[in-house]
Amino acid sequence: MAYINAVKPSFSLSGILTRPFVAVWNFLILLAEAHPKMTAINKLNAQSDAQLAERGTSREAEIRRIFSGQFYL
């Protein structure tokens, strides 16, 4: 037997006050995930080490190539 609870959550002051901060946080994450470096890292993670070795490179070398202008690795 299944029971369904159809009670709507009540509005609270803390929920109303935190909503803009959650929206800003979600927007920042959306921006970070849309960055070209993030898409390059996702493509790199989708490849196996054997595929990288076939291309004559390693995972570490590709990370250095992607982040070469931003970090000292």
Descriptive overview:
The structure is a single chain. The chain is mostly helical and 73 residues long. Helix 2 (36-46) runs antiparallel to helix 4. Helices cover 64% and strands 0% of the residues. The protein has helices spanning 13-34, 36-46, 49-54, 59-66. The chain has a domain at 35-73. The model has no long low-confidence stretch (mean pLDDT 87). It has 4 helices and no strands.
Give the arrangement of secondary structure elements.
Layout: H1 13-34, H2 36-46, H3 49-54, H4 59-66
Kindly summarize this structure in a few lines.
By secondary structure, the chain is mostly helical. Helix content is 64%, strand content 0%.
Number of helices: 4
Counted beta strands: 0
Rg from Cα:
22 Å
Q: Spans with pLDDT under 50 lasting ≥5 residues? A: none
Average pLDDT over all residues: 87
Net shape: elongated
The ordered H/E elements are HHHH
Strand content: under 5%
Oligomeric nature of the chains:
single chain
The span between the termini is 59 Å
List keywords for this structure.
mainly alpha; 73 residues
